[in-house]
Amino acid sequence: MLAVVSDSRAEDSRWSQDNPPADRRKRDLLARRHGGDWTARVRWASSQPPPRRATEKATELLAAWRTTVDPYGQGLFDRRLGRDGLSEGQALLVMGDDGDPSEPEPDWWSTYRSLVSVFDAEDAWVGTDEDWLERMSAEIPAGTGSSVPFVHLLWPVVADAWDRLASVHDSLFATVTPVAADHLRRGLLVRLSMVATPCLSDLMWQSVPFGRRFLAESGPVQDNPPREHYARFCRAQADDGLSSVLTRFPVLGGLLARVVQQWARVTVEMLERLAVDRPALAAKLGIPQDAPLTEAMGAAGDTHNAGRSVSILGFGDTRVVYKPRSVALEELYHRHATALSTLTPDDPLRAVAVLARTDADGDYGYCEYVSRQPCTTDDELRRFYRNAGRTLALLHVLAATDCHHENLIAVGDQLVPVDGETLFDTAPPPTVPQSATADASNSTGIPASVQRVGILPTWLWLDGRRTALDVSALGVAPGSVHPIERRGWRSINSDLMARGDVEMVVDHPTSLPTATNTAAAVGEYVDDVVDGFTGAYRSLAARADALSQQLSTETRNLSRRLVTRPTYVYASLLGASLEPEALTSAQSRGLVLERLTRALLHDEATAIWPMVAAEQDALTRLDVPYFQVGLGGAGSAASRRTEWLDGGLSGWPDIDSEAEIEARCASLSEADLEWQSKLIRASVAASRFRLTPGSSGSEVRGDGASFRADGMDRGQAQEAGLAALTAVTESSVTIDGQRTWMGVSLLPDGVRANLQTIGSGLYDGRMGLAVALAAWAAVDGEHTEEAAAAADAAVGPLLELLHSGVEGDVVRLAHANGLGIGGVGGLLRGLAFLGGMSDDDEFAEASATLIRGVPTNLLRDDNQLDLMSGAAGLIAPLVPLVLTQTDGDAERLLRAAAEVLRDRQDPDTGGWRTELAATPLTGLAHGASGIAVALAEAALVLDDASLMAAAVKGLDYEARTFDRSAGNWPDFRVDARESGFMMGWCAGAPGIALTRLRLLQILPEAEQVPRWRDEMVVAADTTARAQLVGRDHLCCGNLGRAAILRMLAASASGDAAEGDLGRQWSAAADSIVAAVLRQQNGSLPRSMFGAALTEIPLPGLFTGLPGAGLVLIDADPLAWVPQLML
Fold first, then answer.
1. Measured CA distances, 880 to 818, 874, 876 (Å)
2. I want to staple 707 with a disulfide (CB 3.0 to 4.6 A). Which of 48, 493, 512, 1067 is the partner?
3. How far, rounded to the nearest angstrom, does the alpha carbon of residue 503 sit from its chain's CA centroid?
4. For the CA atoms of the chain, what is the radius of gyration?
5. Mean pLDDT, residues 863-877 taken together
6. pLDDT in tens, 974-1009
């Protein structure tokens, strides 16, 4: 029997060998040395004297540790060592080959010995490689061999583990049918394969030419690939007792042993609990006590607490969901769903039966199994979305979070929550620190709002994959009928097995009420969602006092899950820690886990530092970290019960959940209902928005020969601009004592958008709002006081942050917002603008702090490059500082930014390849125009001919892409073969016209001047003739075009040769403004991101009312357009 289940159980006799081969002794020595916990290694080193002499390898690994923790040289590594009481000398011990000589035998060691004994047995394998493969295939359950990588090598481990377990617990296994046994064995097989396959594949390909591997990874998949090499490799690994792979990757042995150990414990625990709970299951969930276990499918969720995860158990025709954790909160939710249904008996919410249990090992339970049933009629769909709104209201009142698509199931006209572990997430204790002004592309939502629940559509930006994903219950993408490409293992268990793009059918999300391959329809039924939400909200509000008292009593001794970091962060790290290079040594895997420390080293507070060790221990054991926090009144035992399931954490503050629940119930009001309803509509609208060339319009208006003012009323325009700026000023909300605003922010892809509280940036955040309000205050004496107060409130948190001197905040700002106009570059522009309107030195001091805080190597990691998000956006605001400052910081940053742009230029085209498109882009914000002008500015200040040459080459590339028939430059973000055209500041003719104007200003003697002037005129004329679009903001809307045309007209007014053109452009700008006012009936211009977002005055300078207001009040374009838009 595997020793993991009981230390007293006998070891397999096949392990006993008088003289095991030398390679197997080495295998076992390395497995023992490198299989320990990283945190235990750190603790041991902290108690030892530093070594007298360090090895070269340890010194190299220490340098790698420093780079991992502190990639930008901010002094964080010393702080990290100090957190665990390590000196640099002791850190060398961590990285050395020697470990703790007194360390006891690890708890997984006897399991490891049993595992390798399967292969160490004499005469275990006979015959040819093909015979061996056929023999293994015959022993493996049907259908398993083709889907699980290296099943032929791993199945003997699974079969042996099962036989050992069943022989000791024969009575428990008596009720397990063969099908359920296959499910349990397959669960172990899949886990072993997940851990072992990267290393096995890497080793298998060592003797294969690289070209063949490349074809296997990216070439077409063969129908019947050969298996000779695969069979020979697996046979060789079996014959040498896995010595080759476990010696090359010594961490792997301990991980495989942990998987087997965890599986054995968890399987026995579940079967023992089932045996005890049969009477209660019969009474609560209708399962006959004598029914055999016919199904035991592990769910697709993560494992926690030593390999535990949710399982679906079948007993003939009846299924239940077994959860090896407390289900008390699920029970509470469905009890209140039933209570809410009594108020509307003709339209009840679906409740799920829950059985909560506790034994010596902890809380666990069972839930009724719920299967998805799509709606079949429009009337049923309407009822579904109305009930989804009612469910949303109840979850909102219960302060639920993390209700993504995997945690709810669409059952006919009902949306049924099946996971309640994050209810009552009202005031979580401090988690991973965030900058006070960091933008939240992956925000968990607006506090105390429906957006935090997770049901409503919202985009999650996956930075590593540079893509957006909606995981919400109502916004998730549908499944697929036809296969689509995903990363996975190709040609499994053949000579061509390799990681690459694999065609697979994506399962339809359980939370969608529509049929497979049918998109989420929440946008068409948002009125029904709001209607259902409103009715349930009012029902709950009517009994708010009683509900508050009831919830306080019910939750007093309960706990909820505390999500300290997004699960995808843990999943990404877990995957990285299983890569072959990470399993070459304990130190290599430890360095992967050390990435978790970065976010907790910028803040001096050490209260939550123990969390890191808990996270690292969990990931070492292949689990996703799982924290709990107790619910209860202030000072109660429950309120302080914040723990990881395997041990306590100290330093966490009390949570007075009673007070939070009381406050949530007390907040229920008609005013709050109106606000939440607006958020529902705006969230849905924002998620549906796409900024594409087709949505911006490229057709021209008129015959191209005449321009007319269309009777613009300047007084009416100024009145509308005043109304826009006033509306933004008055639309602020107070969150955690701080004044803030709601906004729609574009994701880094520049196409999708999210509704969220505004971040810090110039483009759509606090800085942009402050700039607009300050400009308004300067020209409108009547509203100076209120505009200035709002501007101070907008920019105040950023100034406070920069003046606080907290290390790393600038780096976090740069990571969260980028380097360009949307990030650090925009902040510098805004600070310079505000500084120019004030006698206060605080803006200049803040700029200096910002510049000092951006490390040069952060620029070397820039993959955006462009004006919006990359190094190009830093250059313009740095140029005047280089000319006036003497400390050299601005010049250091300017030179680094310019050199990155020069060195990353595509040598073939002259453009710049970024992550937004395969083809180098054109235009101001994302393409060659913005980057080239930035390089030209830098070249003049730094007197660097190589920078100027790169700028000219980039402009030449853009000139070659010009489409004369459209009078515009294509936007390759759509498709390089079917180019679309944008018509905005960000991309297309308007922004390009601005860049040519700037080039003519700074390089009046350049030989390219005639071409640049022609390009400016063509771009301006195209902008003037373009049809209006459905947006009015600065970035790619109508009023942005008007601002640019006014800027061009003002610049041409002093040139006799271009005077007529200037007057035409000015008239065109007036015509655009007049048309916008007519469409809005002379009132507030709110067509920013579509009609559904008009209920919330959007506060973004480039994406909302502030920029539109500046254009309408006719603020001098020469005073703000060059500094803010170019």
1. 21, 12, 8
2. 1067
3. 24
4. 32
5. 94
6. 644 445 889 999 999 999 999 999 999 999 999 999
